[in-house]
Amino acid sequence: MIRSILVFFEFLVVYVLSSFVLHVEKFTLSSFVLGFFAIYFLVFSIIASLDGKNFLFNELSRFWFYAFVPVFVYLIFLINVFFHISVDSRFSFLFCFLISNFRKLDFENRKKVAILRLFAFYVFIMGVR
């Protein structure tokens, strides 16, 4: 339990620091992204906590993969500059979403949480401009 909380706080620190170091904070720390994840975290925590504290903290540790979003955003910006193509930065969240959802899948126990995360990711992708 304590380990999962520390992993979550480590995610926050790494996400924010890497956003500023890579100069992608205008996208990764925008009001929409922060507001979405705050609401998502509250709703997600309530639903995940219905299955017990251990389940909740195991799900919280999956957020650690989102710490790599600023790196993927930076790489996508580099691809856009070097190859003169237009790849949307929202795809940086897709990589982290897939990795976090499919790590230790255990779909039978996580079915409702996985569906919630998929729906929330769809709303997020449709809402970011």
TrEMBL record:
Record field: transmembrane: 5-23, 29-51, 63-85, 112-128
Domain of life: Bacteria
Keywords of this entry: Membrane, Transmembrane, Transmembrane helix
Protein name per Swiss-Prot or TrEMBL: Uncharacterized protein
The species this protein was found in: Thermosipho affectus
Classification lineage: Bacteria, Thermotogati, Thermotogota, Thermotogae, Thermotogales
